[in-house]
Amino acid sequence: MPNNSETVPEVACVEDITKAITQLAKKDEQLTYQAVLECFYEHIINNVSDLDAFEKSKASWIRRINQVATICKVDLAHQQPTWKTVNEVLRKKLSSSPATEPASSSFKSPLSSSKSPSPLKTTLNEKDKVEFERMFATLDKSKFWILKASIEEAKRNDLPIDSIESVEEKVMKFAMSCNFKHPGHSFIVDLDDGNWDEVFSPAELEEMEEFGAPLLPPIDSKVSEKLNELAKLKTAKEAYNFACRLDHDPEEEPLMAWLMMSISQTAYQFLKKNNLHISNYLEADQQYYLWSFISTIFHGTESIWPLGKEKSSNANATANNSKRKLSAVNEICRKAMGRKMDTVYIGGDVELGCMEIGKSAADQTKEIKDGYIKMPLVMKDMLLNIANKAPSLVHNIHITGYSINGTNICMLDVDSPKGYITRVRRTRSLPYPSDRDTYVIRMIPLLRLAATAMAKMQNTLDTYNHAEIPLASSKSRRIVLPPCFHPTSTASTATSKTTTSSSSSTTASPSSSSSSSTTASPSSSSSSLSKGSASKRQKTKQ
Question: What is the rounded distance in angstroms from the CA atom of residue 484 to the CA atom of residue 132?
């Protein structure tokens, strides 16, 4: 009787399973046994000598996957996998000569042959541009946002009024000129994105930055007063003693309780010289040891809850599944999960913001991918979810986010100030204290930032809770904001991944599931973004 240890090699299989789980987890999808197994069918087939040995090894493979998933701290959906594809390919291998047709030629691993396009390099085709034009044509031009700076420029150049282009029209022209997917296709204008410097004049960009509610509203007066007192101190030990002396009622003054605990906890880490090696902290360590104060501030609100451990966004899932329909000519699409964020801030039945953490500030690619693509799109879905429920609030609510890279943090504010535009504004990046002598001067702006973000989220929740949800037909909904745009290349990749598991139970030829993969070339727009964001960060935003 074959030994399972021969059929399932200890080291080799663990490495393959770890690689599969790690790569699949990056795609923000719910992991299943089926998806993991499909990533190393070749390895299974090449290590099985006969069908009996294969049948007896199935339980070992499932056990190995469970062990690796536990080590990687990844949750697996316990859905029974199908082994039909492996059976079919294995039968062909055993029935043919090994010299004429090796198993590897009859099956391609999805991870090696059907890679998803990078979010930074998702190419557009003509069908995408036609679809984008069609979406633009559905918008009401009378509601477009025309900037005063555009009007003034037209007057200076003696141009007729009807020649003035709105923000939406300028975004449309830019989006049509792009060869790669850009947030502009979702009518998102991130004012730190250097691409917009070539679309709008400096006066127009300044007006868009300053229009409407300020980026940094006033914080609680008592917290501000105590922070001003803290600014008179010099060292972490003085700050720790200051926090211990704060007189407050934790039930009646939850913000003062938060301030006391945040200062004492963070200052305590700096009481010993060189005992805090923050550069070596992993993402989870940063979230719970360095940056916990930006979430614990909500513990006293009883209305907003920070949910961590990479929670998927429900608003993003709702948007991703908005086009699902009953099986008819085509089978109903599998339900898509929302993008996973390091923290999602929940208030009642809506999402008010999110947080993303990157371990290293030197990883500029991750900063661009998360802070300039992933977060703005997910936060727009959060904004759209509230606006669809209460359309009258579309220009009065703000979604707040944190982008943390290494020991630096900035706050994102996403709103729709006017028309169909979703605006993204950011604070200047703030560094975490590096030693006990820089603690006070570095920590005060961080505490102000946390108080500001909480005030913005609380204001959005209060505005939503006091708004009437209109009674109307489901078919009478007007376009409040255009949805996020998804090119056909990403859609086809998602379809390929969806059909991979189902095709293994219906066909003996799995290689067709990878035929829709797309290979993209590097994006020129991402380099412009990084240049623009670097220069913008030099500005001091009041």
Answer: 11
Among left, alpha and beta (phi > 0; psi -120 to 50; other), residue 112 is: alpha
Q: Of 113, 134, 167, which residue is a domain's last?
A: 113
For residue 68, give its domain range. Answer: 4-113
Same domain, 92 and 227: no
Q: How many domains does the chain have?
A: 2
Q: Do 434 and 290 lie in a common domain?
A: yes
Residue 130 domain-assigned (yes or no)? no
- Joined together, the tokens standing for residue 438 give 């820089």
Residues 249 and 393 in one domain: yes
Is 21 in contact with 69 (CB distance < 8 Å)? yes
Residues 227, 348 within the same domain: yes
Last residue of a domain, one of 113, 140, 170: 113
Q: How many other CB atoms sit within 10 Å of the CB of residue 379?
A: 29
Question: Does 378 lie in the same domain as 248?
Answer: yes
Per-residue pLDDT of the chain (542 residues; tens, 9 = 90+): 444 433 444 444 677 777 777 777 766 556 777 777 777 666 676 666 666 777 777 777 777 787 777 777 777 776 677 777 777 777 776 666 444 344 333 344 444 444 455 677 888 988 999 999 999 999 999 999 999 999 999 999 888 888 899 999 999 999 999 999 999 999 999 999 999 999 999 999 999 999 999 999 999 999 999 999 999 999 999 999 999 999 999 999 999 999 999 999 999 888 876 655 666 666 666 767 789 999 999 998 889 999 987 678 888 888 888 888 888 888 888 888 888 899 999 999 999 999 998 876 666 788 888 899 999 999 999 999 999 999 999 999 999 999 998 889 999 999 999 999 999 999 999 999 988 889 999 999 999 999 999 999 999 999 999 999 888 887 766 788 999 998 876 554 444 444 444 444 343 333 333 333 333 343 444 444 444 544 444 444 43
Q: Could you give the CA distance from residue 371 to residue 356 in angstroms, rounded to a whole number? A: 8
Q: How far apart are CA 83 and CA 75, in angstroms?
A: 21
Q: Is residue 179 in some structural domain?
A: no
Within-domain flag for 477? no
CA within 13 Å, CB half, 333: 15
Strand 31-32 to 76-77 pairing: parallel
Cα angle for residues 96, 100, 105 (degrees, 5° grid): 90
Q: For residue 518, tell me if it sits in a domain.
A: no
> Phi, psi (5° rounding) for residue 333?
-70, 150
For residue 67, give every residue at least 6 positions away whose Cβ sits within 8 Å of its Cβ, in sequence order, or none: 14
